[in-house]
């Protein structure tokens, strides 16, 4: 075997810029259908970019399990709200990883030269399924080996969190700080669902779900949509003085046999990051990345993913968090949006607090959420399927 | 394309109307209710069929790849890393090690459980390191469980076994 980074045979035909984004309110229940939510997000992104739907060449839709909506093949169902009528349209789906995988698909549409203007729209309406969206997650487990044990989705995260704490000697207090930070950051996000000032004690005393996971360690299920406009350089120059460029993309999946892995380190993220960093010519992420939006559906996951992204050494992310390095005014702001923990977790639609947030930060248009330091390069990432997919994107405002 | 050079000053705003569960219960929001009813019969496949039949006989069966030398459980017909067929079947011990665990207070619908249950990833003795399966622990207080604990399978009586993962009722700690 020889050492190499996978997935880099690709030679892009043109650079790709982001020139507009949109996000809807995130809530457990919304009075809009998924189509209507999609329409809102797309309209906002078009307005920000200064484009009309007729200017869009191709559309990528990202949406997670059909089981939430109770509509099979929901990519087709969502088409009209997504602005996909009568143009090349595709749906991509890698569970929770979709929030960054959908814009990666938008990237390759434009980078390859197939499209000059690509709309990426992500939607999730989790509240249709009851008694709880968790009920839909019963069907992601192996039907023969796992499902007879009556598993709950939270189990796998609890098992992973425990292993991470054990391997790196990390206390729950250290992990709870992530939830405190992100829910606090979300107070400045107009779309936020569970923005609040909380303390470490609040997290440790919250209702036990599957220990070590407690209620306030977890992001809430949500409904929502978000959109991005990705364009070729000659279009970007006509539209804005402040385009944000996609410097690198990466994705990777670890084995489906998740109980055969040591769960303390997200190898799927590390592999995906290697690909994205290589493409972006980043050799020392801790020094070269100014702001990060790693995927944080659980508080330990932000730490886990920071380590997978090479923003911290193994076991070091909790220390950086405690020292304030990851605060919005810190040396390496992490989840300045408020993340999934604070803004909410409509699975694929979290593109709005990951890729869109990074775009707003790098365009200096994040308003009250703008990080204190000067920013040129950022990384964002999402994670999903049966704990196995990592999707990574590096953005920058320099060319 | 009808565009001009545009200076954007503010991020996109937010739209949508949040509603409460009560609004639906009280009929304040127009909606319909539907109950999907689809039934499935899953094929266990070549490898897992043999594994399940092994459980019926009180055995834990694994497969081995001679190229990467992994002993794999749950067993598979091909090694996904070497991408070649497995070389042989081996029988493992019904003992193992707790790699990680959780004390669960909720059921699959996120409803509270009366009694919490202990779930774990247990690596099986005789398999390659970290080759674990998902299962439950019993005959132990939640506070006493730790990572690295040695455990042994507690089987259903032979006449009650069905060739399912639940033919092992749970795993209990090995004394000492
Ligand atoms: Zn092999």
From TrEMBL, chain A:
Gene3D superfamilies in the cross-refs: 3.40.47.10
The UniProt record lists the keyword Signal: no
* Highest taxon above the source species: Archaea
Keyword Heme applies: no
Classification via InterPro entries: Thiolase, Thiolase-like, Thiolase_C_2, Thiolase_N
Report any Pfam family annotated for this entry.
Thiolase_N
Thiolase N-terminal domain location, by residue?
16-193
**Residue ranges occupied by any Thiolase C-terminal domain in the UniProt entry:** 261-397
Q: Give the keywords, sorted.
A: Isoprene biosynthesis
Q: What is this protein called?
A: Thiolase domain-containing protein
Organism (species): Geoglobus acetivorans
Lineage, uppermost ranks: Archaea, Methanobacteriati, Methanobacteriota, Archaeoglobi, Archaeoglobales
TrEMBL record, chain B:
Q: Where is the ChsH2 C-terminal OB-fold domain?
A: 89-156
The molecule here is called Zn-ribbon domain-containing OB-fold protein
- Output the PANTHER family linked to this UniProt entry: BLR3430 PROTEIN, DUF35 DOMAIN-CONTAINING PROTEIN
A Pfam family reported for this protein in Swiss-Prot or TrEMBL? zf-ChsH2
Q: Which residues cross the membrane?
A: none
Query: Sorted alphabetically, which InterPro entries does this protein's record hold?
Result: ChsH2_C, ChsH2_Znr, NA-bd_OB-fold, Thioester_dehydratase-like
Q: Which domain of life is it from?
A: Archaea
Q: Which organism is it from?
A: Geoglobus acetivorans
Q: Using the record's annotation, list all stretches that form the ChsH2 rubredoxin-like zinc ribbon domain.
A: 53-83
